[in-house]
Amino acid sequence: MLPIAIDVMSGDNEPREYVAGARRALADDPQLRLLLVGDAALLNAALAEFPAAAGARAEIVGASQVVSMEEKPREAIRRKKDSSMRVAIDLVHQGRAAAAVSAGNTGALTAIGHFVLKTVPGVERAAIISAFPSANGLTQMLDLGANTKATAEQLRQFAAMGDIIARDVYGVATPRIGLLNIGEEEMKGHEIVQQAHALLQRSALNYVGFVEGDDIFSGKVDVVVTDGFTGNVALKSIEGVAGLIGNRLRQEFQATFLSRIAGLIARPVLRRAAASIDPGRYNGACMVGLGGIVVKSHGRADGVAFARAIATASLAARRGLTAHIAQALQAQGMTS
């Protein structure tokens, strides 16, 4: 497999955190090869500290610019042609990398991805998809922020791509698709949601109807479809609640001597529970629908979480995700 291009300069954390993630990813996967994109001097110094076996599977690609988290997408395209984000995506377009990973500005990453890689036939706009833990395993959700608005037809396309990911990447035989709404009743929701509902009812997908926010975790569906504005609000809310619960439990188990004893007894169970819902474990969201694989990492991801995003990109590349989506959409008659 071709190497994975890693934008180590973009994001809320320091580049060394993303370099640490790259190093961990190389240690976790002996077959993995990486192209580390960014400041050449910084990366040469970092690479010198890698174990010899891992360092031999990493190559540096210089980039003189960085897309900031506040950068407007149009300006990132026009003025940052040698940014680490742009160079990483260019490497995919040139066939030198199998995928690109970045923790940078979502708007800029989406815009550059569309500008350089375009979309596969049958897809108007790419969407960001990621997995969430649920009662029965995992629930795929899209869009998580690539498009603040979506038409009914684009929501139908998101549903089709979510179906492909759940079935062919995660092995769900007949994925159940739900459309996120403020209620399950037929009359609820705004005009676009109602139009998308009608389109999905007429599709060949296993569409079960409207779902509410709690169904992301209930196991009722395998894929939840929404626009990027709503999806990103839901994502950040989920991360916030997970953090609140973790902090509150730590405070309560430290409150008294007996609480600390109870915490010691419960620690193995709490660790397993925390690991199963840890956002870092699910870090790395594929931007599906593009003509190449791009994975968005959380901007504040630490080395462990960033390594997970790299693993997600590697899995997508090994499964031939882009070609697979194009072929599946053609088979569904969505490319005309």
Q: Short summary of the structure?
A:
Helix 1 links the parallel strand 1 (4-7) and strand 2 (34-38). The protein has two domains: 1-120 and 289-319, Isopropylmalate Dehydrogenase (3-Layer(aba) Sandwich), CATH 3.40.718.10; 124-283, Isopropylmalate Dehydrogenase (3-Layer(aba) Sandwich).
Q: What share of residues is helical?
A: 40-55%
Q: Between the first and last Cα atoms, what is the distance in angstroms?
A: 31 Å
Would you tell me the structural class of the helices and strands? Answer: alpha/beta
- What fraction of the residues are assigned to beta strands by DSSP? 15-25%
Number of domains: 2
Unreliable spans are: none
CATH topology of the largest domain: Isopropylmalate Dehydrogenase
**Spatial strand arrangement across the major sheet:** 3-2-1-4-11-10-5-6-9-7-8
CATH architecture call of the largest domain = 3-Layer(aba) Sandwich
Note the run of SSEs as H and E: EHEHHEHHEHEEHEHEHEHHEEHH
Mean pLDDT, all residues:
89
* Discrete helix count: 13
State the total count of DSSP E strands.
11
What is the H level of CATH, i.e. the homologous superfamily of the largest domain?
Isopropylmalate Dehydrogenase
CATH class of the largest domain: Alpha Beta
**How would the global form be characterised?**
globular
* Spatial extent as radius of gyration: 20 Å
Largest sheet: 11 strands, mixed
